[in-house]
Specification:
- By secondary structure, the protein is of the alpha/beta class.
- The chain contains 14 helices and 13 strands.
- 45% of the residues lie in helices and 20% in strands.
- Strand 2 and strand 3 form a beta hairpin.
- The chain is globular and about 65 Å long.
Length: 386
Amino acid sequence: MGSTIIRQGAQHSIARLGDALHGILCASGCWATHASALAWVRIDFSISGTVGHMKPKVLARTHGPAHAFLLSLASLGAVLLAATAARADYPTRPIRMIVPTAAGGTVDIITRTLTPKLSELLGQPIIVENRPAASTSVGEEAVVRSAADGYTLLMSGLTLATTPLLRKDLPYNPQTDLAPIALVAHAANVLVVNPALPVNSVRELIDYAHTHPAPMFYGTPSYGASGHFAAEMFNQMAGTHFQHVPYKGSALSLQDLMAGQIQMTFDNIPAAIGFINGGRLRALGVTSSKRSPQLPGVPTIAEAGLPGYAMTAWFGLLAPANTPAEAIGKVQAATVKSLERPDLRERFAQLGFEPAASTAEEFRQLIASEAVRMGAIARAAGMQQQ
């Protein structure tokens, strides 16, 4: 027969796993006799320090076929016990947070604003890593390919819903290969133009586009970004034909706009507000259904000349699919608590973000519904997969 001894003081969940292993070993007794085993095996899972450090110790060994079988069970038990303890203790080391856009853009801003509070609550450093390329797919794929252990997270946005519509060779599915953790915030886009363009309102921009045959170009942080879809919906509703120029991040598109290389951009308020307040860009309208507290003097696009128009960006945290529920739950709870803190809410408001903490399931449903809505816009605009 077999026996497993779990030392007193181990967590209840560890003891239950030990009991299960004990049952397996006992069940092996009948065939061990038939295999002419010369002795029984006694496994002692020594627990030193925390419950996460366990090493199987063979106190007596069999000879013959039973030996290899029972040692395999011992190793399996050690792995199971260690895995359970590791999940209970999560996190025990620094966490990597991948941002799939360039530094200085909206996703980067919201990430670096949130992570200090998140790090404080989780008790571990959070290292932000920017991975901009191919819209946001390079950074997102890096997370998909990472170990599903809770130590690699992703901050992303509407591109989770739009990228599959625009990439025919996308090597992953955001809705099945990533595990939503929590929605973090909403942010309106703002339509801004170079001050040299002789328009001061949305209606004047539409009229100018209709009376001037020369092409007009708008930039966005990436192909498939929220600003891209906001602009295409604008084109559809206004009858304009503004042409898209995708960039690798907000910083580059805004620089070209101020240099006169493009005429306008639809970008998140946090990325553009400094240039608006500094007079380097002119804001014509916000894309949300109500005015932004950060730009109270700027009308919504709907009230400024395009009734019924509304488009809002959103951002949230995700992890690789199959990340343990314990890790997902701890990060989600820490995110909600972070977003409840008055100092963080105040900072978000200053930057143009509206906190929007959610459950993992609510975030999953948002991604799915937005994929349907953005798909309709993409088809109407004739947006091609690349």
